[in-house]
Structure formats: structure tokens, C-alpha cells
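REVIEWER CHECKLIST
Item 1: Sequence provided? yes
Item 2: Single chain? yes
Item 3: Sequence as submitted:
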Amino acid sequence: MNDLIITDNSLKPSERFIQVIGEYLIKDGYTFKKSQRAFEKPFDKGHYVIQLWFRIGSLTNVTFSWWLFFEKLAKVHSTIIGRPKSYRKLMYMPANLAIHTRWEENYEHTWNLYDKNTLTYTDLSINLAAQKFIKAYE
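Item 4: Structure as written out by the authors:
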């Protein structure tokens, strides 16, 4: 992703960021779950989930978590514990960011959506954060 994606600056910075990375993730087979701010992609035993977390205060940044959901295993587990309809709440396997950071030195996992010099949200600053997110994803 080297081309600058122009976003609607009337949107919140988080929505603009999702607009930029969404294009990339949708091409990779993900669908966006707006209510969860998450991207989901099926695989033969379940699905992958990438969830975005925005810290919104005076300025906004983004971090993410990712995990695997094994649907068949969750259905069996929920049946065993006597709650067969609650399988979607079970068996998420989050990736451990603390362990991942041991593999790579200075692993970056949180990105500012604003320009540090001007403290404003620009297409350039949002695209830069998106590029860093995609690099971490890959």
C-alpha cells in the first residue's frame, strides 16, 4: 500500500483509519463487523478476527488484537458445559502480544492517527498509521 488514500475529513479519525485499512483487508478476504470494529475472515476450522481499539481523548491512536475462533470446537465445548447456544462467546484464542514482542525487537503495536508536528489528522498521518498497521499484520 503505497498510494495515498483520500478520506472524508468530516468523519472521525477512527472511521477514516478503518476506511484506509479496510480496502486492504477486504482484498485479503476479510469482512468488516462495524459494531465490533473488527475484521473477520473464515478458514476451514473457524475464522480469524482482527479487532481495533481506539484510544480517544484529546488525540486518537489505534492498537489491535487478533485471535482465532474455532467454531466446531466451541460448539462441542458449549454443549459439554450445558450452554449450546453460547458457543460464539467461547474458544477465542488471542495472540499474545507480549510473546510476539520477544520475537521482534522494538515491535510497534500502537499508532497515532495524528501528525505529531501539527497535532492534526491528515490523510497523510492516517495513511502512515495504516501502513504501519499493515506491516505489523503481514
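Item 5: Key structural point noted by reviewer: The first strand starts at residue 31 and ends at 33.
Item 6: Recommendation: ____
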